[in-house]
Design goal:
126 residues, 4 helices, globular
């Protein structure tokens, strides 16, 4: 059940089914399905370079809480208002692959309820 407009070879052949606990920046608490739009769906008029186009058809999540905090802080103007949610991707929810830096993972959804296991995380202070 991939979107019709996925480019060829997307998701990539080395993406895998896996069970992962991940963190996602969301606008709603509790998170809703529309908090899990692929970048390409969220920004349909943005032109993506060929080397990142497939990733743009996925959803960005992070495996480490500290890394998602860094991402939100780095893009404070655009993401500073977002909340952090944690949840589990299961093997039935789509394919995943580590992409980019930090603990970033691209998740190509195959579920209508990506939000089903996600809940808000309070910021951890050290």
């Amino acid at each position: 059940m991939w979107f019709d407009d996925f480019p060829e070879q997307c998701p990539p052949s080395d993406a895998r089914q896996d069970t992962l606990e991940v963190f996602r920046l969301v606008s709603n608490i509790p998170p809703r399905a529309d908090d899990f739009l692929a970048t390409k769906r969220e920004f349909p008029h943005r032109n993506f370079a060929d080397d990142v186009l497939c990733n743009a058809h996925g959803v960005s999540v992070f495996q480490k809480h500290d890394d998602i905090l860094k991402k939100r802080e780095h893009f404070k103007k655009a993401l500073g208002h977002k909340k952090i949610a944690v949840g589990t991707i299961t093997q039935d929810d789509g394919l995943v692959k580590e992409t980019g830096g930090l603990s970033h993972v691209t998740w190509w959804l195959q579920t209508d309820e990506p939000h089903k296991t996600f809940k808000e995380v309070q910021n951890v202070t050290k």
